Amino acid sequence: MTVTPDCMPAFSQILSRGFQIEVVCGESIKHVLCDQIGIDDNYVEERIQTLFLNGKAVDDINKAIVTKDSTLALSAAMPGIAGATMRCSGRYSAMRSQISHENDTVRPNRRTDRLTVKLFNLIAKELGPNFLCSGIWVKGTFFKDFLYSQSNRFRDGCIECIMG
Questions:
Q1: Distance from C-alpha of 78 to C-alpha of 64, rounded to nearest angstrom
Q2: N or C terminus: which one in the chain shows less Cβ crowding within 10 Å?
């Protein structure tokens, strides 16, 4: 789908609800983000402050392994004590030990599969366009509902749509 730049904010709904990309599973989150997707190491270290793998907060992106059917949620720093508690290796991370991802000790076989990604706040704004330009998968029914819910201004900004 090719759209004009003023249509990009509408895609935040898709970015936060979740979309799929193809990656080689059986690798660490850091390897997937930096080496496979191509996000700069410094951006991952400095900007992405909160990560959830399958609904559990992650502290060590070098030890948390992406597996088949994983969901990875990425966020910049969130405000308040809740944000401080969820921050990757943050001062208050011990307060969430029951909902933290435990470091993986066994690496599953490496294989290409789809990873569900969810992007929030500044991360969606900054990385979202790159994911969209590279190509993502979303459920057809969700995408149909997304398109029907858009304004005429959005539709006027759609230059091309190829479905496959």
A1: 21
A2: C
